[in-house]
Specification:
Length: 588
């Protein structure tokens, strides 16, 4: 069969943290300059901490030991200078990384969205929409957080600590080296904590996806939930996911809560030792008051950034976990762009040659040995029980999925040889569930298609959209509400028909296009539909046989096979399944 390569199973392991860091860094690259200014701010901010410790010594020794009269004005000036530097640094370290972070969020959101609209249809069979939404909203925020606040803390506080250590070394190398012994111990600890943070963060993100998913389902189906009294059922489902979310959060809290005291206790023990040695030095007269106080001040000043550094591990690891899940999406291959074949306008001949199909997710084939042909301008109707494979069959034409065996051809060319956009430019689809966007009727008809107002209005009139849109004060400029909620099913369907009319493609697919219309309205719209079908090759799936009777050929499907085919008259004369269906319809 040779089509296995097309299944594109992604066997790649999730990339490691280091890989993710590096990849995130690439997003930082275009904003190098801005980020550098931010780092400069962090450096200034950090320098003021060491500066503060030095100031203590300068002030104490100058005032009390040397009794220098210049201290009277030097001290206040130095203090104000120190805080102006600190304030400037503070602004730069807040604004610049924030700027970079928001840019990165925008880029990531753009890329994820772009991927969402280009992923193969099958991707959405496997992934809940709520989870995908949550990646777009929640995970990107976490990446922003990690790349801005957390990175700021990380860089600034590392610098602060380095600065302070430098100053300590300058003051008293022996004492400093002793205090640094506990360094490696703390480093090992922080690493272990990081690992835990990342694990729990991933869990939280996954459960956030579940929270969005369940909530979204509930919000989108208010009627069903009420009429079935399913409130409790939904609430229980929701309770389950929020409980899981809470537990994962608590595990993170536990890690967070424990990490600080443990690190600080170790640090304090070390500090106690240092204090002991320093006191010995001071008593022996090897250290002045200023030096002693300044040394202890610097040591104390290290604890705050150290504490922040330990705490930042959480958000930083959350960001890494979030970035990993985002990169997973970005690494999922989009739809294959198809072959090279392009035509400005196809004639619109359709051929199915011995087509078999099986959904990647299902155990059994859904279509078997489907073969039929529709010549230019012909209408082929497909009827059959629900679940018999009708929608699947027509879905192979725009390549929502590819046939697992056999061939689908347009104008005698395998659909896989067409470039995907050129192929789809040849066809319009009107289906059962019309998706409208929260926009005006006019833009819903145009739907990105370059058309002038006159064309849109002509299409709206032909599809009888104007009939109801004129009743609104804003006419075609009326906004249809979320997913067209303000319109009836029939009105939505008419907008979809107008959309197809406007696109004017040689091939038309109607998948139960009129199912939302009542018989009366369907009869009224029949004329419009026939106008739409005229001069187009049409595959029409319909429940009501009146739509089907005039078709050039009718395929009767059952369990993925075509069990009868012919014209209305032929099939009636044949007295098979179609005849039975027909009789049922009339007795209705
Ligand atoms: N995305 C999917 N993944 C797996 N199985 C599917 C999917 N869509 C439909 N099916 C299955 O394929 C069969 C045919 O479905 P469909 O083509 O929608 O039938 P019809 O349009 O005739 O009602 C059904 O058994 C259905 O359960
Ligand atoms: Mg269907």
């Amino acid at each position: 069969m040779g089509r296995k390569a097309d299944k594109r199973v992604d066997l790649k392991m999730p990339p490691g943290a280091l890989h993710t860091y590096r990849r995130l860094l690439r997003y930082l690259k275009p904003h190098k300059a801005m980020f550098a200014v931010g780092v400069l701010g962090m450096t200034m901010f950090a320098a003021t901490d060491a500066g503060w410790a030095a100031f203590v010594r300068f002030f104490l020794d100058g005032t009390f030991v040397e009794k220098d009269p210049r201290m009277v004005w030097l001290v206040p000036v130095a203090l104000v200078g120190l805080f102006i530097l600190r304030g400037l640094g503070d602004f730069m370290q807040t604004y610049c990384p924030g700027y970079v972070g928001r840019r990165i969020v925008k880029t990531l959101r753009g890329q994820i969205f772009d991927r969402y609209v280009h992923l193969p249809v099958s991707y959405f069979d496997r992934n809940a929409s709520g989870v995908l939404l949550s990646k777009l909203t929640y995970n990107t925020e976490q990446v922003a957080n990690a790349t801005t606040e957390s990175v700021t803390v990380f860089i600034r506080d590392s610098l602060t600590i380095l600065g302070l250590i430098g100053y300590l070394l300058y003051l008293n190398p022996k004492l400093t080296l002793f205090s640094l012994i506990i360094g490696p111990l703390i480093a090992v600890l922080i690493r272990r904590i990081n690992l835990l943070f990342r694990r729990y963060s991933r869990r939280i993100q996954n459960s956030m996806g579940d929270v969005t998913r369940v909530a979204k389902e509930a919000i989108e189906a208010p009627r069903v939930i009420r009429v079935f009294n399913a409130q409790d059922y939904e609430a229980r489902m929701f309770d389950e996911v929020i409980e899981h979310n809470r537990r994962s959060h608590m595990k993170l809290m536990m890690t967070k809560g424990l990490s600080n005291p443990i690190v600080q206790t170790i640090a304090a023990t070390g500090l106690a030792g240092v204090l002991y040695l320093a006191t010995v030095d001071a008593i022996a007269g090897r250290m002045s008051v200023g030096e002693f106080t300044s040394f202890i001040a610097a040591l104390m000043l290290i604890t705050a950034p150290l504490r922040r550094l330990v705490n930042v591990a959480g958000p930083l690891q959350q960001g890494i976990a979030a970035a990993q899940s985002i990169f997973e999406i970005l690494d999922t291959p989009p739809e294959h762009p198809g072959g090279q074949h392009r035509v400005p306008r196809a004639r619109g001949e359709i051929q199915y040659r011995d087509v078999g199909f099986q959904y990647p997710s299902s155990a059994d084939p859904v279509l078997h040995g489907i073969g039929f042909e529709a010549r230019q301008g012909e209408t082929v109707a497909i009827v059959g029980r629900s679940g018999s494979g009708k929608s699947t069959l027509v879905g192979l034409l725009p390549r929502f999925y590819d046939a697992t065996s056999g061939q689908v051809l347009v104008d005698g060319v395998d659909v896989r040889e067409f470039s995907l956009d050129a192929l789809r430019a040849q066809m319009s689809l009107v289906s059962q569930d019309v998706v409208l966007f929260n926009d005006t009727i006019r833009s819903n008809i145009a739907f990105g298609h370059p058309a002038d107002d006159a064309q849109i209005e002509a299409a709206a009139r032909a599809a009888r959209v104007t009939e109801f849109s004129e009743q609104y004060p804003l006419g075609l400029e009326t906004v249809v509400g979320d997913r067209g909620a303000l319109l009836s099913g029939g009105q939505r369907q008419r907008i979809a028909i107008a959309r197809a009319l406007l696109r004017n493609t040689p091939i038309l697919i109607l998948d139960e296009a009129t199912s939302a219309l009542d018989t009366e309205l369907e009869r009224q719209i029949q004329g419009q539909l026939e106008a739409l079908m005229a001069n187009r090759t049409t595959l029409v799936i319909a429940h009501r046989l009146s739509t089907v009777e005039k078709a050039d050929r009718i395929l009767v499907m059952d369990a993925g096979r075509v069990i009868e085919s012919g014209t209305h008259q032929e099939l009636l004369a044949h007295g098979g399944q179609y005849a039975v269906l027909h009789r049922l319809q009339f007795s209705e």
